Amino acid sequence: MKERKSFKYEMADSLLYPRLKEYASKNRMNPTEAESILWNYLKGNFGGCHFRRQHIIGPYIADFACLSHRLIIELDGGYHQLPEQQISDNERSLWLENKGFFILRFTNEEVIGATEIVLNRIKKFIINEQL
Question: Among 31, 70, 74, 79, which has the highest number of CB atoms less than 10 A from its own CB?
Fold first, then answer.
């Protein structure tokens, strides 16, 4: 049997992958307003980076991920203020950071009401990574 080459984008937990793939697909088809706004800027080649949306990494789905810069962008809606969700978000962030990712978090309100500030923070990260 021929051994299959492994690619760096294959970071999904194989046991959870079918369920995560279905969930990610639904999320891509039904984005929040903030996700739609940000994706309109990130898609293509924002700042020299290729972003993926609703990308599976291990047991998680990142809202947006640039694998070449090990950057994940998470958008937080109101439910992220709930104590149990904050615990879950912290565990998720620690797991991803231990895998070498840097996480930028923005609230939906920041993306909708201060899009340029959000984009500038993302650009600043990308520029600092390239130096």
Answer: 74
Residue 7: what pLDDT?
47
Give, for 65, the enclosing helix (H) or strand (E): strand 60-66
The answer on pLDDT for 79 being more than 70 is no
Domains of the chain: 17-130 (3.40.960.10)
The full DSSP string for 26-45 is: HHHHS--HHHHHHHHHHTTT
What are the two backbone dihedrals, phi and then psi, of residue 75, each rounded to the nearest 5 degrees? -110, 130
Asked if the model's pLDDT at residue 95 lies above 80, the reply is yes
In a 3-state reduction of DSSP, which class is residue 51?
Answer: coil
Neighbouring C-beta atoms of residue 29, cutoff 10 Å: 8
How many CB atoms neighbour CB 76 within 10 A?
19
Q: How sure is the predictor about 10, in pLDDT bands with cuts at 50, 70 and 90?
A: low
Q: How far is CA 41 from CA 2, 38, 57, 90, 115, in A?
A: 40, 5, 22, 27, 10
The neighbour count for residue 92, using CB atoms within 10 Å, is: 19
